[in-house]
Amino acid sequence: xxxxxxxxxxxxxxxxxxxxxxxxxxxxxxxxxxxxxxxxxxxxxxxxxxxxxxxxxxxxxxxxxxxxxxxxxxxxxxxxxxxxxxxxxxxxxxxxxxxxxxxxxxxxxxxxxxxxxxxxxxxxxxxxxxxxxxxxxxxxxxxxxxxxxxxxxxxxxxxxxxxxxxxxxxxxxxxxxxxxxxxxxxxxxxxxxxxxxxxxxxxxxxxxxxxxxxxxxxxxxxxxxxxx
Length: 228
Description:
Layout: H1 2-28, E1 49-53, H2 59-75, E2 89-93, H3 101-105, H4 110-113, E3 121-124, H5 130-143, E4 148-154, H6 155-169, E5 184-190, H7 204-223
Parallel strand pairs: 1-2, 1-4, 2-3, 4-5
C-alpha cells in the first residue's frame, strides 16, 4: 500500500510538472513574435539571392512576388541617377525530393510566372529542417560568391531561422569559424493568420505551432549553442 501511495504521488508530481510546463509555454511562447524584420517591403536591399524556406503555406508565393518586384525595378525607366538593383536568384530551400519547375509553376501567380524563368531559380530538394536549410544555402552561397541574402519565412519561424542562419553562415564547411566574412542576412517575414501576436492564442493551430516553435527556439538558443 505504501508503494502504491508513493507511485501515485510521483505520478501526480509528474503530471503537475507537465501541466506547469505547458502553462509556461502558453504564457511565454509569444516571444517568438518579438522580432523586427530588417526589410520593410518597400525599400529593397541589394542582395544576390532571395532565400525562401519552403516549409510553410504561402512562403513560396510571397517570395516569388518579392522577386518580381526586383524584376520590375530593372525593367522600369531609369529616373535620374537612381541606382537600379540587380535581379537576385530565387533560392527555394527544402522543396522536397519530388519538387521541380512544374511544382513551382503551381505556386506562383501567373503574372510573376510570365517573367520568372528556370534560370532565375534554384530549387534545393535535399534539406529537411532549418539547420539543413542554412547549411545548403551557406554552401551554395560560398560557391557563388554571395555577400548578402534576403531570407523569407513565416513570421513565427523567422526569429529561430535568423539565429540558425547567422550561426551556420559564420562557420566554414568543416564546422569551424570561417576566416572570410559571413554572408549577410536581411529578413522579410510572411504574415499568416492566425500567427500574429494578438491572434495565435485564439486558434488551436496557432497555439500548437507557436508553442512548438517556441520550444525549438529555446533549444537552439540555450542548448545547441554551436551548430555544426
